[in-house]
Amino acid sequence: MTAQVPIWLNGELVDPERATVSVSDHGMLVGDGVFETVKATDGVPFALTRHLRRLARSATGLGLPAPDHDALAQGTLEVLAAAPKWPLSRVRITYTSGPGPLGSARGDAAPTVSIIVAPQDPFPATADVTVVPWPRNERGALSGLKTTSYAENALALVYAKERGGGEAIFGNTVGNLCEGTGSNIFAVLGGRLVTPPVSSGCLAGVTRALVLEWCGGDEEDIALDDLYRAEEAFLTSTTRDVQPIRAVDGTVLPAAPGPITAKAMAAFAARSAELMDP
Q: Strand, coil or helix: what is 59?
């Protein structure tokens, strides 16, 4: 059923069989592109404006021309209107530098833009996470950008799943907590809710920002080792919302969810039900 959902490609809604991208597209050749994942509930996108704004920031950070916000918003609505009204679905908006030469240098072609949608299974009630041995480079050129260069994340997830983890957690080069492969992380330490600042190298997650706005919490550097001593902790992401962490590398945390996590979960659920584009 999913394969029959039309795809929005370069401004046109097309059947999947006709939705083709050049083999010389630099999104495929060298990972030269950015993307956003947007949650939709019963066919209605959540926080679409924030996601498109972040897409534009990522594109600008990669040196790409700013995407057409209104066109992508309309394209997202068109794709969702053409798809079944799944209770929960994932919209993927991908924006690459377009076809180019067989090397890292970009060509003169226009960017390639695609929007696709598929059903999304709910995440488990709690997560076990695995800390991986490769640090995020908080000073790297791609730090803070949501790019299509995701091989590091794919490798980290394999590492985590081989060890029983559902998400992989990165530290950074100075030994502080950073983020997951597709999530931000919050911890309760000394009764306080804290999350790494964007200067740690983490992505400025949309759900992360909403949790800070709606539930409170402080942004500050957290030593990676402190995660094992947290009173409670949780992940945030577009498709998981707020997910309590049960264990870190097999070390079971005192509560999942603990009282602060449970409060954040309830507040996020209530506010996001009221405001679909906060």
A: helix
What is residue 251's three-state secondary structure? Answer: strand
Question: pLDDT value at position 266?
Answer: 98
Indicate if the pLDDT at residue 40 is higher than 80: yes
The total number of residues written for the chain in this structure: 278
Q: What is the pLDDT of residues 223-258, one digit of tens each?
A: 999 999 999 999 999 999 999 999 999 999 999 999
- For residue 67, cis peptide bond before it (omega within 30 degrees of 0): no
Tell me the residue type at 15.
D
Contact yes or no for 258/233 (Cβ under 8 A): no
Give the mean pLDDT of the chain.
96
Can you read off the two tokens belonging to residue 24? 């010389």
CB distance 75 to 8 below 8 Å: yes
- Spatial distance between the Cα atoms of 216 and 21, rounded to a whole number of angstroms: 43
| Type and span of the H or E element at 193 | strand 192-195
Beta bridge partners of 237: 241
Q: CA–CA separation, 67 vs 85, rounded Å?
A: 27
Amino acid at 234: F
d(CA 167, CA 17): 33
As a whole number of angstroms, the distance between CA 267 and CA 173 comes to 34
Task: Kindly state the percentage of the chain with pLDDT values over 70.
Answer: 99
Give the residue carrying structure tokens 């066109």: 71
Distance between CA 96 and CA 201 in Å, rounded? 22
